[in-house]
Amino acid sequence: MEGVTILRNSLRALATVLAAVIAGTGTATAAPVLPALPAQSSLPSHPAINPVFNDPSCIPSPAHPNPVVYFHGTGTDSNDFVDGAHFLRSQGFCLWTHHYGTGSDTLRNLVPGHRGLGPIDQSVEELADVVDGVLATTGAQKVDVVGYSQGGMLTKAYTQGRGAGKVGRAVSIAATFRGTTIDGVVPVIGSAVNANRASSEHLVGASTLDQFADSDFIGRISALPDTTAGIIYTALYTPSDTVATPYQTSMLEAVDGADVANINIEAVCGRGFAHQGLPRTTEVIHLVHWGLTRAPGQTTATPENCRA
């Protein structure tokens, strides 16, 4: 879940509007308006998918035969991964991605670059179709997946569903595997949100609500095993995270002999990290590369894995 300032301000607005409804003051006299955007990165205003992705002419090196499919987070898009994708391409990987969750009825869709906002069940099916298309195009037997925040949680939903047998490695970055409290915001507004689901979805997007720790979706996905044998998992997390909270939500439990590395980015790389911007961070880019190349059973990263 990205766009931290926007999301928190939106949730505060949501809480105010819903409180008025619950208190019997009638509907708001004006539709809620998203706050002004904070300073953005150098991403274009109307980003298309960068040509480093989805290149059918890309020939992977023999060491990296699996196409790598990126799953972006909530309120962002695949441009978050461009720097990392260029690095992986230089190492012999072929990269694929898709801007998912764009068809929902939410005010956040009006913000350029805000995607991943639709119901998560629909996004899982959307990405499953994308992976099938990548396999058909490349002739590969399996893909490796890299997911950030909601995208990381989608890797679990996918591998435990239609993706069974189609994934070799799964690397997650600050994933919301068990949902999030958004640093204590969710418990405060949860009952109001549940009582006014349609209005809430219109303001912040269905996927935001689906990732609340007490949501029906998280209840269903939490009932599934975290992992499955045969996939090499690398879960990157940061204890300073204030979006995917508590930070243990981003960790995986090894089930059925799965190969799992839970990596505290701060402890390994020697500095603090915030949730926002993680995929564009040099250390994370190199740890993703480590997760895609580490030997089976090598579950401990070192500071050397944080840099070239």
Automatic annotation (TrEMBL):
Signal peptide: 1-30
Listed Pfam families: Lipase_2
Protein name as catalogued: Alpha/beta fold hydrolase
Superkingdom to which the source organism belongs: Bacteria
Alphabetical keyword list: Hydrolase, Signal
Record-level Gene Ontology MF annotations: hydrolase activity
Gene Ontology process terms (BP): lipid catabolic process
UniProt-listed Gene3D superfamilies: alpha/beta hydrolase
Family matches, as InterPro entries: AB_hydrolase_fold (IPR029058), Lipase_EstA/Esterase_EstB (IPR002918)
Organism of provenance: Corynebacterium hylobatis
Lineage: Bacteria, Bacillati, Actinomycetota, Actinomycetes, Mycobacteriales
